[in-house]
Amino acid sequence: MYTLNVDLEIHTNEKEVTEKEVTLHLLPGEQLLCEASTVLKYVQEDSCQRGVYGRLVCTDFKIAFLGDNESALENDEMQFKNKVVGENDITLHCIDQIYGVFDEKKKTLFGQLKKYPEKLIIHCKDLRVFHFCLRYTKEEEVKRIVSGIIHHTQAPKLLKRLFLFSYATAAQNSTATDPKNHTVMFDTLKDWCWELERTKGNLKFKAVGVNEGYRICERLPAYFVVPTPLPEENVQRFQGHGIPIWCWSCHNGSALLKMSALPKEQDDGILQIQKSFLDGIYKTIHRPPYEAVKTEDLSSNFLSLQEIQAAYSKFKQLFLIDNSTEFWDTDIKWFSLLESSSWLDIIRRCLKKAIEITECLEAQNMNVLLLEENASDLCCLVSSLVQVMMDPYCRTRIGFQSLVQKEWVMGGHCFLDRCNHLRQSEKEEVPVFLLFLDCIWQLVQQHPPAFEFTETYLTVLSDSLYIPIFSTFFFNSPHQKDTNMGRESQDTQSKPLNLLTVWDWSVQFEPKAQTLLKNPLYVGKPKLDKGQRKGMRFKHQRQLSLPLTQSKSSPKRGFFREETDHLIKNLLGKRISKLINSSDELQDNFREFYDSWHSKPTDYHGLLLPHIEGPEIKVWAQRYLRWIPEAQILGGGRVATMSKLLEMMEEVQSLQEKIDERHHRQEALQADVPCLLRNSARLSSLFPFALLQRHSTKPVLPTSGWKALGDEEDLAKREDEFVDLGDM
To answer: Which Gene3D superfamilies match (predicted)?
Structure first.
């Protein structure tokens, strides 16, 4: 830790320690709990420690710092502002760890304190790091604010005590949805029927409402899709377990399914009943030679949740940097630390698994059944990745949001537990959804024109996990949400609460800021007239570049029983190590499929596969590095490239308009260029979260390690003996 100096250079004069009153903006239902005055918030600037005085407040929604220069920041037109959470606001759910500094030593704070720190350090789940000096604050206020922050961020909570419900109650008459938001919510039978029709899955599958009112299973949504031959009474048999639930249908008729395991039983009689049940279920989806099914057991042959959590715990420490000195100390061993975390390797394994399943669906024309204990973690992850790779609709913004609703929200992913919103069990906390977003970012940065949304969209979506005014990421299941929002209540007098969804981006961002969520380089699929459409086959053009892998021959006698036994053993928890296909055969099919696809030109409206070789899997810089000044490249990075591309697009569009007065041809070229992107020289590589020297944060390098940059006389002339990367 660096030393606290009394003679700090402060943005405000010491005579002005009695701060100007800065208004605390409260949301509907938000209440002030405690506050402290004359708190010094540190700002990293060059090699110095600087700070600004202000008030530190804690509400039942957030911790906020109200600085004396707040009004000046609000007038900054270049700022990418969130209307709900300000730059110096931390929602209580976003706080990861709290540390105190006692006699220059950093210690984790928890429970009741006997001694209070002179400095408070807060690490956030969005990887921000806040430093607050309490040395000039009154002792009573220090006790009040520190105790309040610890209690309200660490104490276990009841679901009904979340700010989510306070906000919903207070904003009951003022909440409104964005009329332009056409995200499919999948909370009605009509939504599922629409999705079946869109994917041509309605020929083999049917939407059912057997779970209306959650009378069969609280884990499943009220409506879902199953194979047409499956009797609805089978769904009730084991409360939805052991049932193949439809995820998506491929253009060639193959389908992606998922299934949760049956409860583990010791009684031989019950085991026999379960085996017979699964035998019958399997006959409905495996009917060779017309339909074959490949089972993919994600619980035993893939990642574990413990691996994901352990890897991310190591990975995030690389970005929770307390000061510039720590940044440069860790920079020396950056690559070894990155590799030892295994986070990028986990991303690679997820993408590889999705490609393997894509190969089965696309090239081998096989159904794929994903197996998992509750089918609500890795099933959500893998099935979503497969759909993004295979279905161009899922690469549009509305399509992607609908996918998250279908596979994650309605699929029963336990957001409440996996994000540990109630602070009840750290063992349940696993960043599965963040891992999914990181995998999607890999695809976005490798194939930018294929996606209607940007990496900024993915970044703010990851931030929205911790904003408790949206219901999207704060429940474990649709049943839990409907029950607690009053929709399942028998009381006809009480009106059910109506919460916003995270997909209403107008709640968080002004229209100008929302333009940064839309990719101006994305070109929608051109609409064909009837004459053009008549001569085209249903299969997309990418099919022509796929390897000519023959479909598997009809199974020999005994294969069906062997396959059924494999499925049953997996679902009953009796794992077997041998896969259906040999690992060599799987690897050969995968490599042929993968290499063949990448050897052809990319069709951005067809199948899309990522590169998964070592250097192709990268760190999501915008999300993980955006708060570290030293990691910025002023006027450089992908943002500068994007800005130049947009300038060229505007020139091309202008010339095209002069050549062709008929504007219908311009639709493919027209792009709304975000005004914030027009001057690339004033932007940081981590734009829009790190802007031009708003705090004069210049990336610098110690001269001791860069003697080769010039002779000693030249280096001596540089301020503070640092080399400014911005001038290089």
So the answer is: Pleckstrin-homology domain (PH domain)/Phosphotyrosine-binding domain (PTB) (2.30.29.30)
Do residues 548 and 359 lie in contact, with contact meaning Cβ atoms separated by under 8 Å? no
* SS3 call for 270: helix
Q: Which long-range contacts (CB under 8 A, 24 or more apart) does 20-27 make?
A: 20/68, 22/54, 22/55, 22/66, 22/67, 22/68, 22/70, 22/71, 23/66, 24/55, 24/57, 24/64, 24/66, 25/86, 26/59, 27/61, 27/84, 27/167, 27/170, 27/171, 27/469
What span, in angstroms and rounded, lies between the C-alpha atoms of 384 and 381? Answer: 5
Q: What span, in angstroms and rounded, lies between the C-alpha atoms of 138 and 54?
A: 13
CB within 8 A of 690, min separation 6: which ones? 626, 627, 629, 632, 684, 697
**Token couple for 330:** 């860790």
**Model confidence pLDDT, tens digit, residues 539-564:** 443 333 344 333 333 443 333 444 45
Report in angstroms the alpha-carbon separations of 519 from 56, 292, 524, 525, 592. 38, 39, 11, 14, 32
| Residues 369, 295 contacting (CB under 8 angstroms) | yes
- Cβ within 8 Å of residue 673, ≥6 positions away: 520, 646, 649, 650
* Cα separation, 230 vs 224, whole angstroms: 13
Q: Is the dihedral of CA 444, 445, 447, 450 positive or negative?
A: positive
For residues 302 and 263, the answer to whether their CB atoms sit within 8 Å is no
Residue 671: Cβ-neighbour burial (10 angstroms; 0-12, 13-18, 19+): middle
Burial class (CB in 10 A: 0-12, 13-18, 19+), 446: middle
| Three-state SS at 38 | strand
470 secondary structure, DSSP code = B
HEC secondary structure over 415-441: HHHHCCCCCCCHHHCCCHHHHHHHHHH
**Residue partners of 248: CB distance under 8 A and separation at least 6:** 199, 201, 255, 256, 383, 386, 387, 390, 391
Tokens of 701: 């390098």
State the angle between helix axes of 378-390 and 397-404 in degrees (0 to 180), rounded to the nearest 10: 160
**Phi, psi at 354, each rounded to 5°:** -65, -40
User: In whole angstroms, what is the distance from residue 220 CA to residue 210 CA?
Assistant: 11
> Of all helices (H) and strands (E), which one includes residue 30?
none
Whether residue 289 has a cis bond before it, omega within 30° of 0? yes
Contact 698, 690 (CB under 8 A): no
pLDDT classification of 682: cutoffs 50, 70, 90: low
Q: Which pLDDT band holds residue 48 (cuts at 50, 70, 90)?
A: low
CB–CB of 669/646 below 8 Å? no
The number of residues in the chain equals 728
By DSSP bridging, strand 367-372 and strand 255-260 are parallel
The pTM for the full model equals 0.84
- pLDDT, tens digit, 9 for 90 and up, residues 484-507: 987 655 554 567 888 899 999 999
- Classify each residue of 515-534 as buried b or exposed e, where b means 16 or more C-beta atoms within 10 Å of its C-beta: bbbbbbebbeeeeeeeeeee
Report the candidate in 726, 676, 698 with the shortest Cα–Cα distance to residue 76.
676
**Would you call 74 exposed, middle or buried from its count of C-beta atoms within 10 A (0-12, 13-18, 19+)?**
exposed
Reading the block at residue 59, the tokens are 């509400």
Q: Which of 505, 531, 528, 530 has the alpha carbon at shortest distance from 518? A: 505
Calpha distance 376→407 (Å, rounded): 9
Whether the CB-CB separation of 352 and 344 falls below 8 Å is answered with no
